[in-house]
């Protein structure tokens, strides 16, 4: 179990739902704050930012290695610098966004992408840090974030087992005592067919840490399935409306969908229960209304038992229905009134 912002996160607690703002502010602080309000009203637990500038992530170069492939569904042909310029959250916005989130009862934190981002977030007293999938190989960044003593969440999109192990080991060695590791398919949007959620128990086994899902698939189906497989953290991108457009809108939830995720993920977790088979406490009343053999009309001593006077009906209390073949043709030992459960002493 780990704790972020005073909230316990682990198998014994409902999923921790994180709403990712990312670039869905569309260049407007007012819209960013409106998303914060919508996230709070939807009942999510945390708001997450990404803390970078185009210049801290790349350089303004138009050479082929710096461009996304033309076939990319959302950002085809854009240079990295152009994309990050559109998508980044200005650093001056971080403080008002953090303040609004805290006012609305949310836990604000961010994914830093370099040392200057960690420095900014430390000034804002961020309660945790997220390492994005592409940065899982940036072990110096992981060590720096872990060295703050704050909980760390690491996404594992594109990562091999050895890369995950190296990142987890670096975090631990740098002093991270509270770590969560998220399964992720780092494509935008991601196909549910590539989610491989059955690997979540394996991710838990090989890391020994709390696990979760950073999800870029449409809707909430994958997230709910992940809860059933042990996900304790669910992260989804959120926008006010996909129709508004924006860099992440195509794979982002709208507020009503986020609200459904919060409710249904908690229900999914609650429904997991224990690995036991048998009657539940709430079924005790139902046990009284199973079928059994009953005398269905008044009979006199000596009368034969027939399908006309003994039937399998609800409630319980009489012989089991399968005993009918044994009792038919026998005789009643005494007078028996209508509505009496049939027992061996009556025949």
From TrEMBL:
InterPro entries: AFP_Neu5c_C_sf (IPR036732), Aldolase_TIM (IPR013785), PseI-like (IPR051690), PseI/NeuA/B-like_N (IPR013132), Pseudaminic_synth_PseI (IPR020030), SAF (IPR013974), SAF_AFP_Neu5Ac (IPR006190), SAF_PseI/NeuA/NeuB (IPR057736). Residues 292-347 form the AFP-like domain. Pfam families: NeuB (PF03102), SAF (PF08666). It comes from the Bacteria. The gene is pseI. This is Pseudaminic acid synthase.
């Amino acid at each position: 179990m780990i704790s972020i912002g005073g909230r316990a996160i682990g198998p014994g607690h409902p999923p921790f739902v994180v709403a990712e703002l990312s670039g869905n502010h569309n260049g407007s602080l007012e819209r960013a704050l409106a998303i914060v309000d919508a996230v709070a009203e939807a009942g999510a637990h945390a708001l997450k930012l990404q803390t970078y500038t185009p210049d801290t992530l790349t350089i303004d170069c138009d050479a082929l290695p710096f461009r996304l492939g033309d076939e990319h569904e959302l950002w085809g042909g854009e240079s990295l610098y152009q994309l990050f310029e559109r998508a980044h959250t200005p650093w001056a916005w971080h403080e008002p966004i953090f303040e609004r989130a805290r006012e609305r009862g949310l836990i604000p934190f961010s994914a830093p992408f370099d040392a200057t981002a960690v420095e900014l977030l430390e000034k804002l007293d961020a309660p945790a840090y997220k390492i994005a999938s592409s940065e899982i190989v940036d072990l110096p960044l992981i060590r720096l974030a872990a060295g703050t003593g704050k909980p760390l969440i690491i996404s594992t999109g594109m990562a091999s087992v050895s890369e995950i192990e190296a990142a987890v080991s670096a975090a631990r060695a740098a002093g991270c005592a509270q770590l969560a590791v998220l399964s992720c398919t780092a494509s935008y949007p991601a196909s549910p067919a590539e989610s491989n959620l059955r690997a979540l128990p394996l991710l838990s086994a090989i890391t020994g840490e709390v696990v979760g899902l950073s999800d870029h698939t449409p809707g909430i189906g994958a997230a709910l399935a992940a809860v059933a497989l042990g996900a304790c953290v669910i992260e989804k991108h959120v926008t006010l409306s996909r129709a508004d457009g924006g860099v992440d809108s195509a794979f982002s939830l709208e507020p009503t969908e986020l609200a459904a995720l919060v409710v249904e993920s908690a229900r999914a977790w609650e429904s997991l229960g224990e690995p036991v088979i048998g009657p539940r406490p709430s079924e005790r009343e139902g046990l009284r209304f199973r079928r059994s053999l009953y005398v269905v009309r008044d009979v006199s001593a000596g009368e034969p038992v027939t399908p006309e006077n003994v039937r399998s009906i609800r409630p319980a209390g009489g012989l089991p229905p399968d005993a009918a073949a044994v009792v038919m043709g026998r005789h009643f030992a005494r007078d028996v009134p209508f509505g009496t459960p049939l027992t061996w002493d009556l025949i």
